[in-house]
């Protein structure tokens, strides 16, 4: 069953909710209510209306127990549905006992080797995975994989799905060789089953390319990303968001491997397509401005010792793009700040807005920090100018201000990515201020070096806690 809310789905685009497939001859007022509550709860769930869905799923459990019996599979199905809702709401402590109860009921009723046990174990594995409880997730997926393979067959798409998820866990545990083998096998099963062009296949191929990038296997990542881009161009056309996303990913890999000219061409091609598809000032356009600027800065770095004039010209181009990306990101954040009260009334919309807000803040922080780096690069290429140092300091101070204005007191404050960008900005500002103390004719900074060092210390503690938590 396809969900209308992306947050309610797994990597295949499916929810873990269970349909009513009831061959039971039991029929009474409680079983009738169970059916109504389950159907209505699923409808609300897929609309992103989680509060009424939660009430209905809770009632469905009670009606199933009274109508079918405490240890009936209908109760397990109802427990699974409420557990899936709690997983989506990130109320993990409530979800886990419901999954465990469902597994226990199914094992007692059908036996421990039944495929329905495997399906619920897969869902429990997803719960552990999002909590980064990797050993627990691995155990669930390994057992589910054995059950699905034995009952459904080793070429079944459900078997391939659990295989893929087990591969993601192994990757997160640093077992990349085993992870790669499992993901490749899951891709092969999809190909042989005629799903080699499906979105599930594309998502898994994209994830494998990310594994290659993290392992610095850039040539292999590039090969997969060229394949993905070709698939998107054929199925969606170049002027589609799917093709643009694939092209941007390839361009980023090309930039990592030093193929700057081709990367720049791709980024600019993406930008032209985005301007046709998206409204002016869209955050994705701001993100592409940032990509282009960073590519120009890398080109400037390469030619600084051979052609200073051209290097400075590249930096000026980069500066224009960075100013535009910062402007767009800040405008987006200000608009979203004004919309927050409205968004809170619509759960589904608020999830989308939070993701949009997160992207905008990351882009703003990176743009401002890059502007500071750009000014410092100018001083390294040409005769140092104090105005460039002041401009760098001003950009970094804006970075601090932006984090406090748009991050403090919001869910963005807990984002590891946002906080990491903020810490990077703090460290660069600290180095700049420390250097200023030895420089004459420097204007006073609105933040002292000791205050800055204390903020760095606190932020590092927060990040370490998040990483190990």
TrEMBL record:
It comes from the Eukaryota. TPR repeats lie at residues 118-151. Coiled coil: none annotated. Keywords: TPR repeat. PROSITE patterns: TPR. The keyword Cytoplasm does not apply. The keyword Endoplasmic reticulum does not apply. Pfam families: TPR_10, TPR_12. This is Tetratricopeptide repeat. It comes from Arabidopsis suecica (Swedish thale-cress).
